[in-house]
Amino acid sequence: MRKVLVCLLWVVSFASSAQSYVIEQVKDNVYRFSAGHYHSVFMITDKGAFVTDPINADAAKWLKKAIHSRFGVAIKFMAYSHNHIDHTLGGEFLVDEQTTVVAHRYADEDMRWTKAPVRFADVTFTDSFTAELGQSSVQLSYFGPNNGRGNVSMHFMPANVMFVVDWVVLGRMPYKDLQGYDIHGMIRSTEQLLASHDFDILVGGHAQMGDKGDVRRYLAYLKTLYNSVRDALLAGHTLTQMQQQLHFPEFSHLPMYQQWRAQNIAGVYRTLIEESYFNFRPDVSVKENEH
């Protein structure tokens, strides 16, 4: 993975919760905020700040105070990456009086329909939305279902930094049994991301930062995982057999490979049964106790 130069600006640890908050400069006026293994991104301009996922109430309060005291600007925009509650809590503590809150229409719809305890959006969009702050801008793009509802990419310019949460995870295995993942959509969205945007650095909501080469390697894993489980199911293998027999040595260096390989396989297997109805196909033999 290409090394990304970062500048540590601020670190505070709270002994009571064993939680540390860190701000790092990614490139130019774009920064990464970390709360444990969660990350968000913000951009500073002379017209104000653009912030992304609040993560939780304590993190949001800390970040707002840090932006005000360190950079001396108001928060003009707050954008949600998607609907999942572990990224959207605490928005009411991150906004200022004149902050515009932005979300994709499906993310906003889900938050409202489920009565989520979050700050709802002021502005929603369907395909794309661009926020401009002086000479800087952020383009939000929706590539279809991938993880959760209304999950979008955010392209920060002119720094040329991309922010994606959950459907691209660099330098680590996808999460456990892919809960909330649409494996078809993740492959398709990642392909579209690579084809439609030329970015220097990608920051994820978890794990590491990287470049387009790292994203391509991540996409290769998704395709290898999906194709391997599909072909094993077509050959009549059970889930247990797949978990025992399917190994991906070219990706075995990834953190959590040993712990989550079998769970990743189970997640794709579940998708093939629940979404693609492999258990109803006359050409596929699926034992009843396998789904």
Short description:
By secondary structure, this protein is α/β, with parallel strands linked by helices. It has helices at 57-71, 85-88, 91-94, 105-113, 183-196, 212-234, 239-245, 257-274; strands at 7-14, 19-27, 30-35, 38-45, 48-51, 75-79, 100-104, 123-125, 128-133, 136-142, 152-157, 161-164, 201-204. The chain has 8 helices and 13 strands.
> What level of helicity do the residues show?
25-40%
Assign the CATH topology of the domain at 7-169 and 200-210: Metallo-beta-lactamase, Chain A
Question: Averaged pLDDT, please?
Answer: 93
The assigned structural class equals: alpha/beta
CATH class call of the domain at 7-169 and 200-210: Alpha Beta
CATH architecture of the domain at 7-169 and 200-210: 4-Layer Sandwich
- Terminal-residue CA separation: 38 Å
**CATH superfamily label of the domain at 7-169 and 200-210:** Ribonuclease Z/Hydroxyacylglutathione hydrolase-like
**What is the H/E string?**
EEEEEHEHHEHEEEEEHEHHH
| Main beta sheet | 8 strands, mixed
Determine the oligomeric state from the structure. single chain
| General form | elongated
Count of alpha/pi helices: 8
DSSP strand tally: 13
Work out the strand percent: 25-35%
Q: Round the Cα radius of gyration to an integer and report it.
A: 20 Å
Signal peptide: 1-18
Domain Metallo-beta-lactamase: 38-206
InterPro entries: Metallo-B-lactamas, RibonucZ/Hydroxyglut_hydro
Keywords: Signal
